[in-house]
Each structure stands twice: as C-alpha cells, then as structure tokens.
C-alpha cells in the first residue's frame, strides 16, 4: 500500500522552489558528474518505476517522464528539491468520486489508488454483508468513479396486494424488486423509480397498470323543455310530463392501477334508447303584495330564502331566532318557505315598522 502523502499540493511545491535553490547556493560547490546518473523511485498513482536518471531536481525528473501536475494534485516532495540517490517521489492525482452510501449521495475529491483506500480516506466502513459496486482492490483511475455502498437495511415493499418487510443490501429499487422476484411489465410503475437508491426504513411500492377496453351501457339524461305560464307566480314550477332517461351503448377504455380505475375514456357510443324530454311550466306572474319583500330579501341575503350564514340571522330577510319566535314562527326561518317568511315579516313590520331592517329599507326608500 502506498504511503500516506503529506498535505503538499503542486502549487505549494512550486512556491518552495526558491527556498530549495537558495539552499543549494548556500551549500555551494558544483554538483559532481556522479550525481547526474543516479537511481530514484517514482510512484505515480500506484504505478512504481525504479529509474536511473540524469535529472538534477524532482521537477526535471517529472518532465522527463511526462508527468504533469494539476493544482489540486499532491506530491511527496517539492518539485525544486535536488535528487539524491534512492529518493522516493510519490505523485497522487486528484480524482473525483461520487459516493453513494445507503441512498445518500456526495461529491468528493480523493488521492487514493484503490477502492479500499478511498473508503478509508472518506471514513466509510461498510457493514458485514454490505454491497459494494466495486471490489476493494479495484483501481481508481484519474477520471474518478462512482462508488456505491449499500449496507443491509430494513425496507417495506408493497406489491400485488401484499406487504413485505425485508432486510436487504441491494442498492436500488430495481435490485430489491429483483431480489423478491417481482417482475415488472412495460406499463407497471415503481415508487420511487426503479433507479432510485434505497434508504433505511424506506417504503417501496409496485403498482400494476393494465389497459382494458369494455362495452358499457350509459345513461343519457333527458332534456327539460320549459315554457312560461302567466297564470303561475314567479318562482313556481310545474312538471307537465315527466322525462325518461335514455341509454347508449359505449366502448370505454380504462386504465386500471392495481385493479382500480384510474382513468376512464369513452371511445365511441351509439344510442340504444333515446331519452324522452320532460315538460315543465314556469310561472311569470308577479306577486303584487310581496314584491317589496323580494327586494328586501335581495338586499339582506342576496335573495336566498334558505340561507344560514352562521352569523345568528336566517332566511331571506335575516330574522334572528328570537324575533322569528316572537312573531309565531317555529324552528328557524331558513327552514321555511319564502311565503312563510314573508308572512312573519309582515307581522313584524306591522308591529314595529320598517326600522327592523334599518340599512336595507333606507336604501330601498321604504322609510
């Protein structure tokens, strides 16, 4: 195993060049010709060369062997240092590693040469039975790598109407499904997706998707034909002839998710039995005595005789419960017809005047 390198970057090594050169001048003298032919060891990312060289410095040796240092790379000795017999120069390139540990993804820079060394640098200790995407002895190239560590973990899988609780070291959802013998067809869905990394305690779900085409009988609503009748008061409606629903034969496309209808589309339909229209009459006759009450109700409640807004007032002209009872009403005002509310309103108006509805009667010019 290569030695652990000191924290010397290529940039810092260059900065030390001046100091090393100055030291050489202080020592004085001329380097003997014997030093131009010496044996040194060059270790570049685990590739070890025992070389004989005429280079005087580490930097010259690197140039001779076409070793280029990037700013983030590390070297064990300064590039300006003079070579001496048996010098060991270790160069470690900065390598990008994407690490996935039990579904957690991180981006890292390492200076290691094998997967085992990388795990040590990143302080990752796989548990017994863990899945490793590459063996510990595998090399880490200068291009870097993706490294997946998946420890045994408990997960829940819902599929085909069953719930499975398993302990697995498989890294992805697809791997867990394969381990359980769950085979997906083209339309089936996985949640999370098949390529998602599995986290401890996670719930996985497989949904079976089926497309079906069926023939169904559909109800067809009957139309309503309404005509005005001046003999009936406005708001009154009478059914002259009851309508009947028709029926259509329809081709329906269904999308089923675990047997339940998710989407339903009618592709085509043809009539089996046409609907019969309902005939109604609608009154148009004005209520001469009550028109003022309709205008008052429009102001008080928007004309909604059945309203209960929860503010303690009820019906078209907004009786309070106590006032309603004081004029002989039963229950609550909004539970009664428009005519019953107007009847009680007339009693109250005769007894206390239009001031019982101060704002709206002023707007309507009633006082």
Structure description:
- The protein has 367 residues and is of the alpha+beta class.
- Helices cover 21% and strands 35% of the residues.
- The protein has helices at 10-15, 17-27, 58-64, 115-121, 173-179, 291-301, 321-326, 338-352, 358-363, and strands at 38-44, 47-53, 74-75, 88-92, 95-101, 104-110, 131-132, 145-150, 153-159, 162-168, 189-191, 203-207, 209-220, 224-233, 237-241, 246-257, 260-273, 278-285, 313-314, 319-320.
- It has a four-stranded mixed sheet, with no helix packed on it.
- The protein is elongated, with a radius of gyration of 45 Å.
- It starts with 9 loop residues before the first helix and ends with a helix.
- Residues 1-36 have low confidence and may be disordered.
Layout of strands and helices, then pairs:
Elements: H1 10-15, H2 17-27, E1 38-44, E2 47-53, H3 58-64, E3 74-75, E4 88-92, E5 95-101, E6 104-110, H4 115-121, E7 131-132, E8 145-150, E9 153-159, E10 162-168, H5 173-179, E11 189-191, E12 203-207, E13 209-220, E14 224-233, E15 237-241, E16 246-257, E17 260-273, E18 278-285, H6 291-301, E19 313-314, E20 319-320, H7 321-326, H8 338-352, H9 358-363
